[in-house]
Amino acid sequence: MTIMNDETREFVAMHRNEDVRELALKAKRVEGLDLPLALDQIAGWQIARKKLPQWASCEGIVYPPHISMEQCSSQFTAQYKSEIAQTLLAPDATVRARVSDSGESDNQTTKSEPQLSDSAESVMQTAKSAFQLSDSPESDTLVAKRAMVDLTGGFGVDFSYLARGFSQATYVERQRHLCDLAEHNMAALGLDQARIVCGDGVEYLRQMGPVDFIYLDPARRDEHGSRTYAIEDCTPNVFELRDLLLAKSQYTLVKLSPMLDWRKVVADFDGTVREVHIVATGNECKELLLVLGQQVHEEPSAPRVFCVNDNQRIDYDSASYTQGLRIGGKPLPEAKNYLYEPNASIMKAGCFDLVEERFGVTQVGPSSHLFVSATPVADFPGRGFAIEAIGGMNKKDIKRLLNGTKQANIAVRNFPLTAPQLRKKLKLADGGPVYLFGTTMQGCDHVLLRTSKI
Predict the structure, then answer these.
(1) How far is CA 452 from CA 128, 410, 417, 441, in A?
(2) Model confidence over 348-384: pLDDT tens digits?
(3) Surface-to-core class of residue 250, CB atoms within 10 Å of its CB (0-12 exposed, 13-18 middle, 19+ buried)
(4) Checking DSSP bridges between strand 168-173 and strand 382-391, what pairing results, if any?
(5) DSSP reduced 3-state for 319
(6) pLDDT tens digits, residue range 318-350?
(7) What is the largest CA-CA distance in the chain?
């Protein structure tokens, strides 16, 4: 790893808020200045400022080239993985902080720097403060003799957060330059318990002793550099390693593509999946996380599913909602005053009958994945709208619905037209306070709902 000299470090400090492309063209060539390295550091810090604010606030971090920064985990998703590890390994007396029927913590958060819920934060604070292990007896008790291994180290963001709750934390990575980078950055972050191993993760797994926790993020690109999603096409193939992982750890956390069908993945792992975590941020699904563990009972038990979108969180026993798509058991309310659209993690989970039951709303129709209610719903895990009018696709209804409106935000679900096609048909510009939904209601009626956001 190339270490920045004084000239390069000074240049980065002076220009890190400036446009990298303009700097590349206009920067004066100064003796001793490594301009390509400086530009990488400036670009990396600018991404980290939004994506990894705790890293960005730490002096001494060295960032990799742009593509690695774009692909690395965000602070939110890395913190969430650490929360999973700590609650899995916490003593029985500790509150399982992730489990919450409310779907929202008492501690309100922002998108720019999401935090853990109050109860989860208390678990984390006993394990570690911002970047350094606490010297308190509580912390010593929590992390004493706990060991974890990250078999697919990469840039090390996930590892840096997971490692905080363990007295021994091993990072394994085949690429020497990433190992050098990790060794430097973990020291800068104050993670003295971190051990960096340059080698093949699968070989390390075969020869290592048992640990409390293993983390894997299989590479989702083939030998030609093309993106892949199927588990058996990723490196390493976790299906082939399943029994070895179960033998070597109490729990294994596997990060997979959010494109995968989680039900099929659970079935393919044949009863060894204890938990499924569907993690979204900014209403975009980012990760599918599986917790593997030994079977507790002779008969395989269905995993618990956690749906997370920033500070919106719900969880449920998948055995109770195996269908997830039931329609027709609950008639639409006579007064349809409010419309609700679930967040991305709920959509991915497909637990629409759970949403009906838990929040007292009704699905508008098969495959529409929108909900209506007569009264407002507090803490719904998604977006809420006040319904102003409902109509069909005939000219009279459309004229009544639009009532002179020239622009609207348009979305469609289970509708014969795409959003651009509907926008063109209605001759509307984009934006404004009006939200139009095209969907299909019970009875197979295509309708438009004019709403305003609440």
Answers:
(1) 44, 12, 21, 19
(2) 999 998 999 999 999 998 889 999 999 999 999 999 9
(3) middle
(4) unpaired
(5) helix
(6) 887 655 445 556 788 889 999 999 999 999 999
(7) 76
